[in-house]
Amino acid sequence: MKKKIDYDLSADEKQLLKQQKVTQKMLQDYAPDEIAAILHASVGRAGELAALAEFQSIPSLGIGFAKELIAQGYYSLDGLKGKTAIELFDAFEKHCGCWADPCVEDSYRLLVHYVDHKDDSKRWWNFTAERKAYRSQYGFPADRPKTAWYEMGNFPKMQAYKEV
Fold first, then answer.
1. Which of 99, 107, 137, 156 stands 20 to 30 A from 15 (CA)?
2. What is the distance between the alpha carbons of residues 35 and 94, in angstroms, rounded to a whole number?
3. Which residues of the chain have pLDDT under 70?
4. 50 with 38: CB under 8 angstroms?
5. Separation CA 95–CA 109 (nearest Å)
6. Are 51 and 74 contacting, i.e. CB atoms less than 8 angstroms apart?
7. DSSP 72-105
8. Are 68 and 131 in contact (CB under 8 A)?
9. What are the extents of the domains in the chain?
10. How many CB atoms lie within 10 A of CB 30?
11. What is the pTM of this model?
């Protein structure tokens, strides 16, 4: 597990943790129902926090990527089993309404590799050659969004990926 997980906690949530003498690092060790009790949070919010920790446990994937997986309805790595990187990336672009930077596709390739192999030695950039070879042979779907992510201005869903 990563040393530092970004939970994007509110000031009130941080205060509750402090009162309970629980650090953010310790949250990784709690089940969602325990997180809900500690933070006086809904089951949904506790599930989001647990998912943020689980998704960010993959090396080189940050909170922006984790939040996007949650926005698409994924809350665990088990929920991604059987999915392909291409399927997930193409769905991501449709969800965002624009095409994404190629490193985002590399990140989806890392995600699927990690789900399948639990190999934490790889980083997103280890999948660049694989992506390039695949796209050179197969291209992109005909219904791929026409607008690039950087043409969207202050597009919140893509802002998080500028840090990737």
1. 156
2. 33
3. 1-3, 154-164
4. no
5. 18
6. yes
7. TT--SSGGGTT--HHHHHHHHHHHHTSBPPHHHH
8. no
9. 1-57, 79-164
10. 18
11. 0.87
